[in-house]
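ok so I'm stuck.
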Amino acid sequence: MPAAAQRQLLADVEAFCQEIRPFEELCYVEHRFNDQLLPLALKHNILGMPVPESYGGRGADTVTYALALARIGREGTGVRTFFSGHSSIGEYPIMMWGNEDQKRRYLPSACKGEKILAFGLTEPEAGSNPLEMQSTYEKRGDHFVLNGVKYLISNGGIAHAVVGFAYPKDRKGRISAFIIDTNAPGFASEDLTAKLGMPTANTAMFEMNECQVPLSNMLGAEGEGFRIAMGTLVSGRISVAAGCLGVIGDCLTEAINYAKERRQHGKAIAKHQLVQEHLAAIEMHRAASEAMVLRAAEAKDASAAEPSDVALKTKADLFAAQAKLFVANAAWDAADRAVQIYGGRGWSTLYRPGRHLMDVRVCRIYEGTDEILKLKIAASVLGKEYEAFK
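replied:
not stuck anymore, here's the structure
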């Protein structure tokens, strides 16, 4: 991405973040969806950051997009999750595996906020192992009919289209991917509000009951769904890691400011050694996380430049997993330390560290749990013959 275009995009992201913060603060305390997120994202033209300019996007490379998500992550994991759901795992699979007709029908509309996107892989009984999904499809005339339930889907209740996955009805073939319009007959969603955090973000489940999907909306070739899902998760994991980097940065800023202002035992608590220990740990989390996020993003860009290079693709996949595992845990610890510095005030949604603590915990679960990522990383150093599930 040209330097001038990168600077402009990051400036637009900064303007969005400054404008969204007071709304996010209010909505969080009131425990409701932030309905200003979409109009402000549209105002600042950041709904299609990674989408090529030819389809109405900003054409950001992975590094630039990661920097943007890191800034957005400072405003809250709920805010960043919207962009991950819409762009990182919504627009991305259509960009990578969609045909020209699909790209023209969905990407420009997604960039203009006319179509909000989501990614529907997880099911009530299929989380870490998507191969256990129960959703099915069959071809009937000029359309497919899908049946099944998807669960804990970011943007699932506000999306106009979902990239979804299902097995053939007879279970004799492999998983396929589809672009599912949420206004299709047989599609129904329900918001999930019983969450530990992210009250300002939309999370939903949806059911497909004889849901009709045009034949033209199969994404990629039949049977390629699992490959599409796993490829998309590389993008998703980098986006989560980048957002968590932003969380760490905000926790550090808030903790420093509070430690300088708060006085106990006759001096600012910033002068107490054990408080400094927490601040030093958060800063080390930030520095190490930044390096891992940028390494993963650079590897993803290198792979995108040479799509036929298997070694580069494998490296990008591994670096994304490493970054997501490390930075999500670092953000959790940073938020915990920031809450500790705030003391009693930290145990309140009126202050930012407590909100980060609740929100960032899910980042160790979605887009690949800690456990799954550890097994993936271990297999990379042991060899494929030692993969845990073989």
